C-alpha cells in the first residue's frame, strides 16, 4: 500500500504553526511517525514568509495561537501560498466555524486525537489547489444572507445614487470596469456597474463561476490581483476567459452587524499593479457606500412601521 505522505519518493512537507511546546512536540512527532517532514513555527508573523520560502504541501495552524486566523487569511491572498491546503486546530465552535468560512479544508477539535489528525492530513496534503470558489458554508451562512436581504437592494433597478460610486471608481482609478457586487449563495448581483461587456451589462448578474468578489466576501478584506491569468486563486475563474478580467481590486462591504455582503471593485482588461492609494480610495468609497445602504434600509423599515395599521 502506498503511503499518502509520499509523492515521487519524497515525503510531503507540513508547516506546523503552534505555540504550546508540549502540544507542538506531540503534533510534530505524530506527523513524523506518519511519514511527513515537519517545518515547525511558533510565530504566525514569521510563518507566512516561511510558507512562501519553503512551499509546504500543507499548513497546519493552531487557531488558539495569537494571529492564527489572520495567518489563514493571508495565506490565501498570495499567489505562491494560495494553492497550499490548510488545516486548523480549534478549541471552540466559534473558531472552527470562522476557519471554515475562511476556506480552511478541515478543522480538528482540541485535544487532538492521533488517528483523526493523520486521516485529515492524508485527505488533504496531496489534494491540489486551495480555494477555487468561496466556501459554501460561508456564503450560505444565514446571518450573512439575512443581512444582505435586509438591505433591500437585491434585484432592484439601477439607481443614479449608486451609479455615481462606480463612475467615481472608474474615473479615479482609471479602469474600464467598476462594480457594486452583492454576493448571495448562488450568484453575484451588480447593483451598479460601469463598463461591463454584454450580456453581463444587461443581465446585471453572474453565477459564482464568474465571480472574483466572492473571495473579497470570503476574506473580509481587500483582494488585489495584478494578473488574474497567473493568480492561482482565479486563473480558472470564468471571469478571466469569458469576461476578459485580467486585473482586480476589491474591498468588502461589511454591515454594522459584521456581515460581509458584497464588494466595491475595479477591474481592468490588462494586468496592472494596483497601488496602496487605489485600495485606499476603494476602501473609503466602500465605507461611505455601506453606510448609505444601511441608512436607506433603516429609513424603509421605519416607513414600513409607521404605515402599519394598529392592532386592537
Summarize the structure.
With 312 residues, the protein is of the alpha/beta class. It has helices at residues 21-33, 44-54, 68-75, 93-101, 114-125, 136-139, 142-150, 160-173, 200-203, 213-219, 238-241, 276-306; strands at residues 6-7, 10-11, 13-17, 37-41, 58-62, 86-90, 106-109, 177-183, 187-194, 205-207, 223-225, 247-254, 260-268. The longest helix is centred in the C-terminal third of the chain and has 31 residues, at 276-306.
Q: Regions with pLDDT < 50 over 5+ consecutive residues?
A: 1-9
In which range does the helix fraction lie?
Answer: 40-55%
Q: How far is the first residue's CA from the last residue's CA?
A: 75 Å
The total number of structural domains is 2
Oligomeric state: single chain
Structural class: alpha/beta
By CATH reckoning, the class of the largest domain would read Alpha Beta
Number of strands: 13
Looking at the structure, the CATH topology of the largest domain is Beta-Lactamase
Whole-number average pLDDT?
A: 87
Strand content: 15-25%
The helix/strand series, from N terminus to C terminus, equals EEEHEHEHEHEHHHHEEHEHEHEEH
Largest beta sheet: strand ordering: 10-9-8-13-12-11
* Corresponding CATH architecture of the largest domain: 2-Layer Sandwich
Largest sheet: 6 strands, antiparallel
What does this structure look like?
The protein has 2 domains: 6-130, Response regulator (Rossmann fold, 3-Layer(aba) Sandwich); 139-306, 2-Layer Sandwich (Beta-Lactamase), CATH 3.30.450.40. It is of the alpha/beta class. Residues 1-9 have low confidence and may be disordered. β8 and β9 form a beta hairpin. α2 (44-54) packs parallel to α3 and α8 (160-173) packs antiparallel against α12. It has helices at residues 21-33, 44-54, 68-75, 93-101, 114-125, 136-139, 142-150, 160-173, 200-203, 213-219, 238-241, 276-306; strands at 6-7, 10-11, 13-17, 37-41, 58-62, 86-90, 106-109, 177-183, 187-194, 205-207, 223-225, 247-254, 260-268. The relative contact order is 0.10. The longest helix is centred in the last third of the chain and has 31 residues, at 276-306. Strands 10-9-8-13-12-11 form a 6-stranded antiparallel sheet, sandwiched between helices. A 5-stranded parallel sheet has the order 4-3-5-6-7, sandwiched between helices.
Amino acid at each position: 500500500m502506498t503511503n499518502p505522505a509520499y509523492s515521487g519518493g519524497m515525503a510531503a512537507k507540513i508547516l506546523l504553526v503552534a505555540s504550546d511546546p508540549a502540544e507542538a512536540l506531540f503534533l510534530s512527532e505524530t506527523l513524523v511517525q506518519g511519514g511527513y517532514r515537519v517545518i515547525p513555527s511558533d510565530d504566525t508573523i514569521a510563518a507566512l514568509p516561511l510558507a512562501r520560502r519553503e512551499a509546504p504541501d500543507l499548513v497546519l495552524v493552531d487557531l488558539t495561537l495569537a494571529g492564527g486566523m489572520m495567518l489563514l487569511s493571508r495565506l490565501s491572498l498570495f499567489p505562491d501560498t494560495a494553492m497550499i491546503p490548510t488545516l486548523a486546530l480549534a478549541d471552540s465552535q466559534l473558531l472552527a466555524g470562522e476557519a471554515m468560512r475562511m476556506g480552511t479544508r478541515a478543522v480538528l477539535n482540541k485535544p487532538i486525537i492521533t488517528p483523526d489528525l493523520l486521516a485529515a492530513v492524508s485527505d488533504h496534503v496531496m489534494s491540489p489547489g486551495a480555494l477555487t470558489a468561496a466556501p459554501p458554508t460561508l456564503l450560505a451562512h444565514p446571518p450573512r444572507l439575512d443581512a444582505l436581504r435586509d438591505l433591500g437592494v437585491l434585484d432592484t433597478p439601477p439607481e443614479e445614487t449608486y451609479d455615481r460610486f462606480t463612475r467615481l471608481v472608474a474615473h479615479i482609478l482609471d479602469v474600464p470596469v467598476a462594480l457594486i457586487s452583492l454576493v448571495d449563495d448562488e450568484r453575484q448581483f451588480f447593483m451598479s456597474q460601469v463598463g461591463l461587456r454584454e450580456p453581463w451589462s444587461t443581465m446585471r448578474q453572474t453565477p459564482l463561476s464568474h465571480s472574483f468578489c466572492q473571495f473579497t466576501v470570503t476574506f473580509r478584506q481587500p483582494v488585489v490581483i495584478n494578473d488574474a491569468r497567473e493568480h492561482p486563486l482565479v486563473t480558472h475563474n470564468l471571469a478571466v476567459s469569458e469576461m476578459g478580467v485580467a486585473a482586480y481590486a476589491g474591498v468588502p462591504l461589511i454591515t454594522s452587524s459584521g456581515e460581509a455582503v458584497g464588494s466595491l471593485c475595479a477591474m481592468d482588461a490588462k494586468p496592472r499593479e494596483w497601488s496602496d492609494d487605489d485600495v485606499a480610495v476603494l476602501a473609503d468609497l466602500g465605507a461611505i457606500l455601506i453606510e448609505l445602504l444601511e441608512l436607506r434600509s433603516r429609513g424603509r423599515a421605519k416607513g414600513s412601521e409607521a404605515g402599519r395599521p394598529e392592532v386592537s
